Write the structure tokens for this entry.
Amino acid sequence: MQLQKLVFLANGMSLALLERPLTYHNIHAWQWGPVLPQLYKSFSKYGSNKIESAANCDEVVPETGDENEIIASVWKNFGHMTGPKLSALTHESGSPWDKTWNSDQYGIIEPNLIKEFYREKLNAPTASQAV
């Protein structure tokens, strides 16, 4: 659960700050928060235990320095939080998960919904305004 929520947060920050996702997989509104089904499938065998191996991945998205900074920032600010605590954070009223769950349980959380939510949270300008 913790990994799912950290990936979701990093993806949201990337959408807000860089106007591009960290993952091109759809994120769904599941009962306990945002979930990337492919990530879930890769690690579900561990349950709530420590993940002992890397995921088998047939696609690699090149990382930039900006993406690495976002990942490091999310880890620094949220990496200490448990899965349930992160789940509660992503269940905030008006969050992308909340809006999607209330209209389409288990549906895809639209990237623009994620981007705008985290842009407001960060009070971030668009990439074109930041330059």
